[in-house]
Each structure stands twice: as structure tokens, then as C-alpha cells.
């Protein structure tokens, strides 16, 4: 048996880091077990599904390092779904219901008032053919529900309870008698995701379904449908969900945490990968060089049982560590793309203070100038002295130390009083890369002009 997993996003918006977490969990599980990863677009909602969103999701996954073994679109498989729908109807497992949303809500209110569970009462099963014809003549169109096993006095525990050994949470159970028969087909004839997803999992040989814990209850329903269709029930794993820093759930409407937005901020994919995978697990969030670095030790059972808060500050910190550790050979082409000369000494001088890779271009502008010279009035005599003591070229890594040593001796300054005025005058910024590396790049002529402008 080849391990086969799938990631099945709806192309109705941009995927966020929580969606990326699910995609990465599936990809890493397949990678670790020598399996296959399927990308399957749940695009049966013709009105909301957009090609640009599907294209964007494919770009996001590629950026994260995920390379699908196969890509499917559910909109291209409608004939297969209609075939299974007809079979379920013929077997009496899919039945038409005519209640409006308002009528269903009224039923639920009455059930709550009687301290009864608000589940569908299966009143539609009592309708005769004449009743159905009358309702349709009135303009009503049916939605279709799947007849769950486990209801009624003659039902046994094996029918009523669906149990499985969850890959993330251990033993789990769902009581089908506590659930309404699920709607699988809407009034307009379109499918909800449940039936197409199960059919696809069967047809595509999906062996493991790894997804968020908000689907635990759905699993009971889906196992019942798998069995009704004679399919092999896959193994299930339900990982904890991510929330934002305030503890609120993530959604496609919150574009700030979309993968597209994170990429636009200049973050490294490896940073997003490691945070998305290891946050809320027992594994340390440490910089990685490539996505494959996460596969070997990946363990679904290490996932926490409680939700994990995603903080962009944590992502920024990991990203900075990754960028600063990048070897020159890995960045030289990217430097040229940003208009920065691809030289080892330039990368060595600038990389130690970068938060994102794009910052290297900003610091190269500081090197080449012009910069906004910052100097307190009281520091002007000191800066004039610094200009006078500025040594002749050539400069190397030791020039800064010898120059500031001579300047300290002559001025009597030390520590912050010595170094900060020099940094502000030379770079226009309070913080940045080591000036020992920057000074040779700036050069004597520019340094002198910044210290003692004409």
C-alpha cells in the first residue's frame, strides 16, 4: 500500500498559514513514508470558486516547497458524483427534504425548549409520493440528506458509534445518533463538499486524511458514507488549529496572515514552513535550510491537544535567523536581482543585521548613499575630529578598530558616546550591521563627506 494523502482547498480565497499547516502536515507525512501528495481543488461551488484563487494556491504551495504528485479539480468530475448520487437515492440512503431554512430553525427551537437535541427529525421520510409532488408543484425544490445508521430502537452500538485511532489525538468516537442526517446536495442540485470528497478519496486511493480538529465530528458522518459506498475507510488525523495572537480563529477573510501576504513581506519560505509545522507541537522552532529538514523527525502524535497561537513576531525572529545564516552561494543570484553586487565581502558585511532578505538592498543604498546625516550639535566638533583622523585607504576589517582607537584616545570618549555619533553620521541610523564591515564598503571619500560635510 502506497501512503496517499491529499490537500483539498476551496479556491474561494487565499490560503492562510493555518491552511498551510494542514498542507505541510500532509506533505511531510507523505514524504516521511515514501508516499504521494495530491492537490485537489474543491471547486464545486461554481459561484464562489475562482481560477485566480486556484492559481494563487498553486503558487503558494510551490513557494512553501510543496510539489504535488497529482492535481485534480472536482468541477471536472461532476458526472462521477451524479452517478453515486443516483445510486444512493435508488438504495434509499439519500432522501429528499423540503423544509425551508426558517422551518428547520423553528424545529430546532422547539426541540431546545423541550430539552431535546436539535437534530433533524426525519419528517421527510414520512412524505408520500403525492406529498412530494404537491410540494414541488408549490415551487419547492428538495435538498438531499444521507440516512445515517444508528438511529432507532433496533440500532446496535456498532452502528451508532464510529470509533477510530486518530493519528494526532489517539482513540476518538462519534455518536451518530447525536447528529442530524447530513445534507449532501443543495436545493439547486450542487454538492456540498462531503460526498465529492469521499468519492474522490475512494477513487484516488487516499489512505490517510490529515486535517484540522474542527473536522472531528464530520469524520463520524464520513466514515458512515465510506461504508455505505463500500469504500476502504482511510486513517484519520486531526491536528490542533492555529489562532491569531488574540486567540481568534483564522479565516480567508483575514488577509494579513495569508501565505501571499507573508510572501509579499519578504519572508523566507523556510521560516513559514518551520513555524507553521512546529508551533503547537513538542518540537523546537529552529531555523531550517529546506523543507526536507522537517520530514525525518515529523510526528503527528507530537501535536498538542490545544489550539496554538500564531504570533508574527515569532515568525519574524525565525526569519531573521534564517536570512543571517544564508551562505553567499545561496544568495548571490538574489543579490543581483535586487541590484546589489554579488560579492562575498558585501554579503558578509550586510547579512548580520538583516530581518528579511530584501533589507540587503536597503543597506546597500546606505553604503552607496546619499544618506540623511544625523548629528547632534554637541557632536559636531567630535565628528570633525573623526574626519581629520580618518586613515587613508586601503581599508580592511581592522581599519575601524584602529581608527576608533585613535579617536577614543584623542577625544576621551568611549562606549556609546564614541560609537553612536559615528554610526548616525555614517549611516543615518541608530542600528545596523557592524561598522567594521561597512566602513570598507563606504570608502574614505564618502565617509569623510558624511562626517564633515562641506
CATH topology of the largest domain: Rossmann fold
Percent helix: 40-55%
Based on DSSP secondary structure assignment, what is the total number of beta strands? Answer: 12
CATH class of the largest domain: Alpha Beta
The percentage of residues in β strands lies in 5-15%
Count of alpha and pi helical runs: 19
Alpha-carbon distance between the termini? 78 Å
Kindly provide the radius of gyration, computed on alpha-carbon positions and rounded to a whole number of angstroms: 31 Å
| Spatial order of the strands forming the largest sheet | 1-2-3
**Oligomer kind:** single chain
GO cellular component, one term: cytoplasm
Organism: Hartmannibacter diazotrophicus
Binding site for ATP: 252
Catalytic activity: tRNA(Glu) + L-glutamate + ATP = L-glutamyl-tRNA(Glu) + AMP + diphosphate
If you had to describe this structure to a student in words, what would you say it looks like?
Helices cover 45% and strands 11% of the residues. The strands form 5 sheets. A 3-stranded parallel sheet has the order 1-2-3. It has a 3-stranded antiparallel sheet with strand order 4-5-8. Strands 6-7 form a two-stranded antiparallel ribbon. Helix 10 (269-278) crosses helix 12, helix 16 crosses helix 17 and helix 18 crosses helix 19. By secondary structure, the protein is α/β, with parallel strands linked by helices. The chain has helices at 17-32, 51-64, 78-90, 101-113, 129-137, 157-160, 194-203, 216-228, 259-264, 269-278, 292-295, 312-324, 328-337, 344-350, 359-368, 380-389, 399-411, 416-427, 435-451, and strands at 4-7, 36-41, 70-73, 94-97, 143-146, 161-166, 170-175, 183-185, 208-212, 235-239, 242-243, 308-309. It has 5 domains: 4-72 and 191-240, Rossmann fold (3-Layer(aba) Sandwich), CATH 3.40.50.620; 80-165, Glutamyl-tRNA Synthetase, domain 3, CATH 3.90.800.10; 255-324, Glutamyl-trna Synthetase, Domain 2 (Glutamyl-tRNA Synthetase, domain 2, Orthogonal Bundle); 328-368; 377-451, Arc Repressor Mutant, subunit A (Orthogonal Bundle). The radius of gyration is 31 Å and the shape is elongated. One of its GO terms (biological process) is glutamyl-tRNA aminoacylation. This is Glutamate--tRNA ligase. One of its GO terms (cellular component) is cytoplasm. Residues 3-315 form the Glutamyl/glutaminyl-tRNA synthetase class Ib catalytic domain. Its EC number is 6.1.1.17.
